[in-house]
Design goal:
Elements (H helix, E strand, L loop, with lengths): L2 H5 L9 E2 L10 H16 L1 H24 L6 E4 L2 H10 L8 E5 L4 H4 L11 E5 L8 H7 L4 E7 L11 H10 L3 E5 L11 H4 L3 E5 L11 E5 L21 H6 L17 H17 L1 H21 L3 E2 L12 E4 L3 H10 L2 E2 L1 E4 L4 E4 L7 H18 L1
Parallel strand pairs: 1-11, 3-4, 3-5, 5-6, 6-7
Antiparallel strand pairs: 2-8, 7-8, 9-10, 10-13, 12-13
Helix pairs in contact: 2-3, 2-10, 3-10, 11-13
Length: about 375
């Protein structure tokens, strides 16, 4: 499957220029068909839905996500949001007296707040600042010492589009016995990830952005050697045996990451999540990344030619699909674009940043359409 074929699967592209995959992906026709199949079974075949689809859809989704990030199936659990996965990672790390956690300056709040809760609020929090729009691994290294228990970073930052070198950061963290926690909300499905090769310990990502799925479904990855102990929470779905009689005898967790799954999954959400990951798998993440980087680079070049300040690095190794540009009154530009059937995003850096997020279903004509409309906006507003 090539990008042109993928584009034909997204009906929104027939009427709009959609460039906001870093916020929420549009629904593909296979996604809408999958939702309809589940709702039909819910309405007319609930026994099949309960007895078969519960495990089938979950196993399929876990397998697809594992394949996209280079994990084993049993290292992936289904959760409700990226934030839920980030919290789970923190809960699996034992607090330590005099310990510290290192963040990048753009770490998402759901990665930071769990370290402020009771039992962990005594842990020192250190933030590494950027230089010229990037965070060099050497600056992270300077913030780490032998009391560091974790390094928590966003793989691709949502406000600037800067991509961290996971392998380099992992090497630095592990040299001090610290674990690497990764928020991959803006990278999973847009760029290649290999958690084993890159040395990632924990990772979480929602389905609704670059994975081409819905909100309310997300995935948590934990390296196999880190998820063998008791889970921080327990429920019927996390138990090896969940009958009433076995519950009286004691809790035995399921093997692997399934021990973190507490109850029945959102079946409509899971059904909606799998077609997008199937599309990405069929295209191949190497090809997806090449296409996304080509478009984001093309967009950066077009903005630079117009003398706009672009926050996203030019170097392809240091960016993904998010392109951030400094523009006065960015919300007004977003509204203008929407009125002309173009979807982009404002909302960062005090209303002065506009974000353009091209994905596998976009092409250079979409970027040109956006840039020409930006020229028109500038001409109309002076």
């Amino acid at each position: 499957m090539d990008p042109t074929e993928v584009r034909s699967l997204f009906p929104i592209m027939e009427d709009r220029t959609y460039l906001f995959s870093g916020g929420h992906s549009p629904a593909s026709r296979p996604t809408m068909e999958a939702i309809q199949r589940v709702t039909d079974r819910w309405g007319f075949g609930i026994a099949d839905l309960y007895n078969h689809d519960l495990s089938h859809e979950a196993d399929k989704a876990r397998r697809l996500f594992a394949g996209l990030i280079g994990a084993d199936d049993d290292e992936v659990a289904i959760v409700g949001s990226t934030g839920e996965g980030s919290n789970l990672a923190v809960e699996l790390i034992e607090p330590r007296e005099n310990g510290n956690v290192v963040f990048d300056e753009w770490s998402y709040p759901s990665s930071i707040f769990p370290w402020m809760l009771p039992t962990r609020d005594m842990i020192e929090r250190r933030f590494v600042s950027s230089r010229n729009g990037v965070i060099d691994p050497s600056d992270i290294a300077d913030a780490i010492d032998d009391d560091t228990i974790a390094v928590s970073i966003s793989h691709v930052t949502q406000g600037e589009g800067f991509r961290q070198d996971l392998a380099a950061v992992s090497h630095i963290a592990h040299a001090h016995g610290a674990l690497l926690l990764v928020d991959a909300a803006q990278s999973a499905g847009a760029v290649t990830i290999d958690v084993h090769r890159q040395g990632v310990d924990f990772l979480s990502a929602g389905a609704c952005k670059w994975l081409l799925g819905p909100a309310g479904v997300a995935f948590f990855y934990g390296a196999k050697h880190l998820i063998k102990g008791m889970p921080p929470h327990a429920g019927g779905q996390s138990a090896l045996k969940a009958s009433w009689s076995s519950a009286r005898d004691g809790f035995i967790p399921k093997p692997g990451a399934e021990r973190f799954q507490l109850g029945i999954h959102n079946l409509i959400g899971l059904a909606a999540a799998t077609p997008g990951m199937e599309i990405l798998t069929q295209v191949g993440m190497d090809h997806v990344e090449a296409h996304v980087l080509d478009l984001s680079g093309y967009c950066i070049d077009g903005l630079a030619e117009r003398d706009y300040e672009v926050l996203t690095p030019v170097d392809p190794a240091r960016r993904g699909g998010v392109v951030a540009v400094v523009i006065d009154n960015a919300p007004a530009v977003e509204r203008f674009m929407s009125e002309h059937s173009i979807d982009v995003y404002s909302g960062h850096t005090y209303n002065k940043t506009l974000r353009i997020d091209p994905h596998i279903f976009n092409n250079k004509d979409d970027i040109d359409t956006f840039l020409l409309m930006l020229d028109e906006y500038k001409a109309n507003t002076g």
